[in-house]
Amino acid sequence: MTLNVKMNQLPRLSLWFWIRHPIQAYWIMFLVREAFRQNQIERDPNSLTNGERTAGNRAIEMSRKQAKQALRKINLLHKRQQAALDAAKRERRLATELHDRLCTPPTRTNSIVIPPLPLAEARSLLAEQRAKVKADIERGGTRHLDSPSKVRRATAYGLLGVDIIALFSVFSTVFNVDLSAPELKDLAITGGFSAIAALVLGQLAHSTGHQVWQSRVTTNELDTPQRDDPGQDEGEQGEQQQALTATNGEFPAPRLMLKAKMVSLGVVSVLSGFSILTRVVEEAEKIHQPLLGWVLGLLVAAAAIVAPWLVVIDEMRSGSVETRTIDALTKMVQDLDSQSSTYTDNAAKSEAEAANCQREAEGIRDEVALEDTPAANGAQKVIYMARSMHGAAGHIAAEPDESAGRTELGDFFRPPSNVLNDALSRMKPAT
What we know:
Elements: E1 12-13, H1 15-20, H2 22-38, H3 50-100, H4 119-138, H5 150-174, H6 184-223, H7 234-244, H8 254-286, H9 290-316, H10 321-367, H11 374-388, E2 396-397, H12 418-425
Parallel strand pairs: 1-2
Transmembrane segments: 154-175, 187-206, 262-281, 293-313
Region (Disordered): 217-243
Keywords: Membrane, Transmembrane, Transmembrane helix
């Protein structure tokens, strides 16, 4: 590191280097001058000059600022990771509690009463009911083969529109509405009464079909021989039999109510069909087409009569108690499985976010390791270039050599980085 120069003769940098790298050129010449001044006194030839220490300390200070910024980022990542882990823990807990939660299976009617039960018991009961239905079908039973039909139901309720027209014809006759030149008020009143009557008719048909279904279910349960449970005493068996026959003491009697509903439904549907038939025939006679009027009138009247009974048939063929129980339990199990899957997916996303925070923090720590920062690398490069010019007194260096003395500065640019490591140690390892 001895600098052999003549009086007032120092190595110089080319003008081209000054133009391209003015800051590096300034620091290189500063270090060369400091080395020349320090060379006038005795010193350790392997030690750093004062200028080199100045450049190195300046670079280390800049690196420490970068390390502080990195520390703030790591602390923020630690908070994000902790929040993600807490969210994952919460989602896992919800998924676990979901299996122990008591849930009531959703049912369309009050005829199927299933007490609240956890998911495991719901699965067990579902498997038991499916096995029971399968065994009944294998023995030749057909009551489980009935099932709700969306097409049948849509057709039935669509045909109820014909009853609305028929009821509109009835109410227009009752209120003496002139359909050739009707008033808006009369049309509104007649249409409102027709819609209300159609809703009542549909509800009556639905209620009749449901009561027929209940009657069939009760008859099947009474006719089905009950096996004696060895673990069940006579009192419990008597209570079950009493519950099955409890309908016999109801008032009014269910069978009487069913007959009254069916008679009312038949009368209303026949009157609706008759009214629409007479209206169509009357309008056809005005245009001298009586035959066409009778054909169309009979078709429309048949639709008006059949429509409510299709609702009855759809409701009475909507499945057995077992199939309805299976449908309710299946929906409950599917909903709970969907919620559990959602909780599990959310937990997995939160855990993945926590792992990403850990990897990002490690990457920041590696990027700001003080010996690898741009400031430290730039300072070392300047020092190496300045040392390459030692002994070149009076010469102009077009491009100084930056590879000289590279092994001598390793320890100087390795200050401790325990702060970043301590911050990383508080974070959870990536999984």
